[in-house]
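hey can u check if this looks right to u? its 376 residues, i copy pasted from the old doc so theres a chance i mangled smth
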Amino acid sequence: VHAAAASDCMRGASVVSVTNERFAPASNLVLPREPYFDPDAFGTQGKVMDSWESVRHNPLGSDAAVFRLADDVADAERAFDLVEVSTVFHDGNHAKAVAVDVAELDVAADGALPADLHWNELLPRSPLHGHSIHRYAIDNAPRGKHRLVRVRMFPDGGLSRVRLFDSSSSSSSSALSVDFVSQFPSEARSELPIAQPAQLHSADAADEAYPSADSVAEHWRVAMETHNRRQIDVACDLFGGVVEEASNEHYGKARHVISWQPPRGMFDGFESARAHKAGHNEWVRVRLGRATRVRRIELDMRFFVNNNPESVRIEGRCDADKEGVWRTILPDTFVKQYRGNTAIFDVKGDGAVNTIRVVCSPCGGFNRIKVFGDDH
């Protein structure tokens, strides 16, 4: 439990509305306990987080959660002059900024926000850092019988907790200690470890070891006896595929995307940190087992429900091309609609390539990439 939980004016608050909570519910923001992290907890939405977390690639520029304060808090005049915002356990998927507003009007009988609602700024838009506790001292905090609180995060991502305090409160049950108040303003990165999933550790040795040249040759021999050339996934590690490089492996190793085994979870694939810059992209470069004129590409995103890329471009090149120019195999293609599924693209490759590059814009991840084609 938080050291000043009894004094937190967000205690007992209820969620009135929220724009997006597909990763984790906004109700977690006001829990009295400190956030916890289970590295092995995954759900159908992705990683289970003890926080409020929205999906990637928010086109609106911000997400908002509105809370109704508990009656014992709202019935007294208060000035929330101390604000604490935690991003603990969000590191790379945290919101880049936060703002907090308050209002004295209450919700309507049906729970709707009043049409004449006016928000008073409490905490202006302020930058955030990952896995940290941010404490703000608010000068001239608006005083009143505040009933509603709006928390906005920019542009999307996660917040672990938001706490509001009135340092002038004289109630014995909610009085803040001098030591606690002295910590405002400040910012500190948490020393708590963020562990990797146990499933990932147990499979590391096998996943990192590429098949031997003899093993690859044998798989090709058997496959060519029983399959058409176009049925062989030339990106697969069994057939000599190798991940050469990736731009950002913050949450998942790119090595996994060419595994012959079905993915086990969101952790079993390539995933970058969140990017909030226009024109940004992340990429994975794969050397194919054999030079191939690409005819079909399969992009498996079965466990990427809320964090698959917004768009994908696939390029190829061949060592025989002295200029080493990347040629477009699949132009920039919107893939959000394929979240939690496999996207299959029939393409007409312009000549054989032995290396491909999967470019994800602006960020995100996928579980597997499969490449099919022929020699000519």
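The two ends are 65 Å apart (CA to CA).
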